[in-house]
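protein under study:
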Amino acid sequence: MTLSAPAPSSAIDALFTNARLPDGRLVAIAVGGGRFVSFGETPATDAGVPVTDLGGALVSPSFVEGHIHLDTSFIGDVWKPHRPCTNGFDVRERVAFQMDLLSTAAPMAHRARAQLELCVANGTLRMRSHVMIDGSVGLKHLEPVLEVREAARDLIDIQLVAFPQSGILTCPGTAEVMDEAIAAGCDLVGGLDPAIVDRDIEKHLDVVFGIAEKRGVGVDIHLHDAHMLGVFEIEQIAARTAALGMQGHVAVSHAYALGEVSTDQAKRTADIIAKAGVAIMTNAPGAHGFPPVTLLRAAGVTVFSGSDNIRDSWWPYGDGDMLSRANIIGYRSGFYTDAELESVFDVVTTAGATALRLGDYGLVPGASADFVVIPAAHVPEAVAALPRERKVYRRGKLVAEGGKLVA
């Protein structure tokens, strides 16, 4: 980062002194009109401009929640005991359990707002949520989530993915409803396990990329399919991405297969992914292999993260804290050095912003002044210690402190 010179005082309406940047430098941060004005020496300001002394605490760009499900969490509802699959993990059975539990859940808008507030309170101000869209539910999940997004627009920026939870080819009418969902307000088109769920990789991808090309939107596909089958699907997605010139607009979420094959195979596929400009999302779930973060990043792949499910029918865990998610990924990856801890911090901040194509992000002049103040001396300590007494600022205004919203 290049520190900017002090700005004219007339451009500044808030000043934060003794701010520790992720690169270790201690600076003053000037904010004006909800945007960062400068990072550097303390500038002269007009009388009455509020000054906040951060006391040397670490200042981070707001966290990027790259994969969540606002419509299916039970946060804000009564506890729902987990129902295990009857014979090992099965996507279709889990979906059936989900629909059963959602039928008696609290109103979706209430639960979505509660989950949103949990995430914001922990420092997330940019988010991508998948929303169930298929021929059976139509747009019933999307409509309340769109309302929640609009009501929270001053608090958080949210991208929505039209997610075919029940499959596309095996659920009549889903392709048409997904197209409608993009027209109604979804920002990306999703997909789900083309081989195992729909049993036709090419036709599934024809629909997903066809809608993306028609509507001019990006793609984010759930891919749980394992081992070489999953790797083959990832390579097919990469090929489609390159052929359509969609580099940087496509993500594969989960991609368990990359953590289930040999290192040599993973490296070969990583090179294909990097060349195609496909991003990989991992939340490092405890019951699965997961993509090798260091190997992928070394190949030039953008690796980002998300909470995925938070206290829903898929599992009872999740706290909406992306710093905690960085800790989990680091722990499961065997990361110990400062450089490794810094890399996983990047996964939940800058790399997430890259994957979501956020042009208004980061600790740079001109970007929206969205940041988190963490009581830590540096990034490695923040990832390892998970300080909870954070302050969250949206456009230069305090919105959360100590895990609770203040505005």
In short: The first strand starts at residue 14 and ends at 20. The chain has a mean pLDDT of 94. Residues 227-243 form the longest helix (17 residues). DSSP finds twelve helices and 17 strands in the chain.
